[in-house]
Specification:
Chain lengths: 216, 216
């Protein structure tokens, strides 16, 4: 068991070392980097599409998926420069995979890089990948108890987006219980309700990103 | 890197050895065991509640969560004997944790044991935990592309339950595209559409479980 713990510690140390390098490169190039976290199907790609529509900045995307390039095709068709990473089974992105992907888009400067992590509300929250901020996307359809059951992702998030608010008339979503759970994990995160289907709420999301991007 | 691969292989081997022991004990006691897989918020607990309402068998539950015992409280209130496992961060249940939990319910005989795995469409599919069957729950609200993006869970499932069908009038869910994706990964799984909210479709689910339970 000692050998297992030692190997895990080495993986985290090496990851953090490379994450710091990635962050330095991005900062030098005035690229604000957002690690996009969320469970499968919460609307990570749809949210990024809506942000890109409203934004005054140039968006770039690194699209993480276990398999498939469905989302990359969607984003490239909209003119958003997107690079695909397929992990072929791995449950999260790590800093070395981002460092490697950046060699393919090394000329990016002055913009916002979204890294869509693997759809998983657990493992991705454990790994820094060089980002300046973590944006957690959750969905009304998944219920209001998520902050209580998956605390780490909520604890680490800087911006929490509650998506699919257009569906609340058909759900038993308890916003007060949700927000109480968020505040138990994290008193500093900004929480914004949106509907990626209707486009509601994205002015506030873009404002948050622009305010934070200009600080790097 | 060789040391990391070796450690991972040892973990899988040890897990499979204990999973075989768990399976043998459950089979000897005529307990049919179902590993319940699914992303956060797809309705794993709600589906089990509906199954328990309709079933002629005695249901037992081992409830896996990273933190909290919200679902265990719900199930115990309904008179369903439920044991909680909290993984405190770990992204899946493994066979040793099930072997350990079974010592708390060692007297169970002649029934169906549901093990609700951690809400995660990736990692839990990699680990056998002594089950006779894997029941994958997915939700219409998460979109029809899930089989393409998370192939392993679909490949390993014996029964695939598509939940929240009451919400399809408000969604762009493409059932044909979903089913095509399922069949790419798995031609043998049974697929059943349900609504845990309304109770629709659960006669078929209970029938599937009873037909398979009597074979052990």
């Amino acid at each position: 068991m000692t050998k297992e713990i030692e190997v895990v510690e080495n993986i985290f140390e090496e990851n953090d070392r490379i994450a710091a390098q990635v962050n330095k490169t991005l900062t030098e190039n005035k690229v604000f980097c957002i690690n996009v976290l969320g469970a499968p199907g919460v609307g990570k790609t749809s949210v990024m599409k809506r942000i890109a529509e409203k934004a005054n900045f140039t968006p770039f995307v690194i699209e993480g998926d276990i398999e498939s390039d469905i989302d990359t095709e969607t984003l490239n068709k909209l003119g958003i420069k997107t690079v695909q990473i397929n992990t072929h089974g791995a449950c999260h992105l790590d800093a070395p995979s981002i460092q490697n992907a950046l060699t393919g888009i090394s000329h990016i400067k002055n913009g916002v890089l979204f890294i869509e992590n693997i759809g998983n509300l657990v493992c991705p929250a454990e790994f820094n990948i060089g980002e300046h901020a973590k944006m957690l996307i959750v969905s009304t359809t998944d219920g209001s108890d998520k902050p209580y059951k998956y605390p780490l992702a909520f604890e680490k998030a800087n911006l929490i987006i509650l998506n699919k608010c257009d569906l609340t008339p058909y759900l038993d979503f308890d916003y007060d219980f949700f927000l109480k759970g968020v505040l138990m994990q994290n008193k500093n995160a900004t929480v914004i309700s949106v509907s990626a289907k209707d486009g509601d709420g994205f002015d506030k999301v873009v404002e948050w990103i622009e305010n934070n991007a200009c600080r790097i």
